Amino acid sequence: xxxxxxxxxxxxxxxxxxxxxxxxxxxxxxxxxxxxxxxxxxxxxxxxxxxxxxxxxxxxxxxxxxxxxxxxxxxxxxxxxxxxxxxxxxxxxxxxxxxxxxxxxxxxxxxxxxxxxxxxxxxxxxxxxxxxxxxxxxxxxxxxxxxxxxxxxxxxxxxxxxxxxxxxxxxxxxxxxxxxxxxxxxxxxxxxxxxxxxxxxxxxxxxxxxxxxxxxxxxxxxxxxxxxxxxxxxxxxxxxxxxxxxxxxxxxxxxxxxxxxxxxxx
Amino acid sequence: xxxxxxxxxxxxxxxxxxxxxxxxxxxxxxxxxxxxxxxxxxxxxxxxxxxxxxxxxxxxxxxxxxxxxxxxxxxxxxxxxxxxxxxxxxxxxxxxxxxxxxxxxxxxxxxxxxxxxxxxxxxxxxxxxxxxxxxxxxxxxxxxxxxxxxxxxxxxxxxxxxxxxxxxxxxxxxxxxxxxxxxxxxxxxxxxxxxxxxxxxxxxxxxxxxxxxxxxxxxxxxxxxxxxxxxxxxxxxxxxxxxxxxxxxxxxxxxxxxxxxxxxxxxxxxxxxxxxxxxxxxxxxxxxxxxxxxxxxxxxxxxxxxxxxxxxxxxxxxxxxxxxxxxxxxxxxxxxxxxxxxxxxxxxxxxxxxxxxxxxxxxxxxxxxxxxxxxxx
Lengths: 266, 377
Description:
Chain A has helices at about 55-60, 80-85, 105-110, 115, 125-135, 150-165, 180-195, 210-215, 230-235, 240-245, 250-255, and strands at about 15-25, 30-40, 45-50, 70-75, 85-90, 170-175, 200-205, 220-225, 225-230. Chain A is α/β, with parallel strands linked by helices. Chain B has 2 domains: about 1-260, ABC transporter involved in vitamin B12 uptake, BtuC, CATH 1.10.3470.10; about 285-370, Arc Repressor Mutant, subunit A (Orthogonal Bundle), CATH 1.10.10.10.
């Protein structure tokens, strides 16, 4: 891996991601409304909110995959186009066809496509890096497997490896813990912490509210509008969650009490 | 018979035509893989049908029957058809299959009207325009074949050049966009190549059936191989094969249009692949199902043996088959399951008609039922 760059290279310790007045609408229906947000560099930030809160849209807007109706996004004080190589994306694993004819290593190699550039193919150095990324998520033994043969948790780890191989400084993940087994969850948490300790920034859409305090430093509570954002200890409160989830927060107990089993996704 | 073979091998005209059919089969097969993987098989059909008015209009406007002119008209119309599909999906908020259905039938109907109109014109040169409906390989001239090969090679070269981008776009478009791949433009290029592959085949295969030559080789190839590169190569090979064999049959004096014959050959290839391919084929699936069924039944008996063993001080105690059968509610085939367990070394017939767990069997039962491996098998 490349030398880990300390957060010192950031301009005056400014935010890793800065979102101003972001509004996104699909066919006149606002999905995100006037979002202001600063993501702290070198922290693990969760995005939580009910279904349809615009969590995926927020991630995709930051990545420039969705055209906003208004507002702007800055990444390390640059536009997303300028900052592409600093950003890695882990989409929801359900968005792709896992029967696609390809191998695990091949999928991870896709993370190198940008730097490999037009008209060229990944070579030996890229392969070595891809295998290393697989090692980080405990999947190196599966590199030649067909992706069809993977379990849900293994699919998720492969997606994570594909982001790791990009050697970015900001990682945007859409539900990395969705439907994974306990072993995968532990493995992913470990990788996320390692990234943070290296000074990288991770933003993840997260569903299981009860694990937010354990896994994340900061949290963004979203429901079309930004309800709250900041350190978990300050803003991850019953009141804020009640505003976001409409007063019906069945897992509030879980937040204060002992952790309970994963809530089924509605 | 011998005569037919001689025609096959030595007749110059036949070789030219066969070469053309092979080339377009290869191009259609290769690009068809992306259409199939992107779930756009029907788009190929719409493009082919939408090309018909282009052929008629190109003739009307230029008065020329030259293949390049007609192919250009077909390509333009095919593209406009594709844009129409996208426009309807975006603008009218109709589902894609509805849009495809509308565009396909409207363009094709319009094409038939133009074709009928052209045929009534007092021109000698309009002769043969209707062969574009069902395809007639016999109308291929050396120059046509040359064009197919040159344009087809160009399309394949572009496919090789933008391989990475096409691959990541097809697998995961959002991720491709996050890498900075200009997704719109790459999509445009890929669809354009598909249009090219389709219009190249219109003269030989016809607008009605051309999409089969795009979809069938790819669908067949997918059954046999598990990497995109191999799939594209195999689909190209199968497409070429379908082309050559189809031309052979239709030009062996039968007078059958080439398109239907090519499609029949391609369908036969698909049929065989669906049935017999190892791993994904139907036969393999049946075998797998039976093996899984046997294993599940054996596992159930293993679980019973384990439960019985836990109730006994002597874990190696033998239990009569009748007991096990009662635990399975009189299910038949307990003996078969016990044999399977015996073959695996997990259970042993201690006395005639009396079975007990081996130490390995006990370990297996414990890991399988108490500490299941997360890994799928």
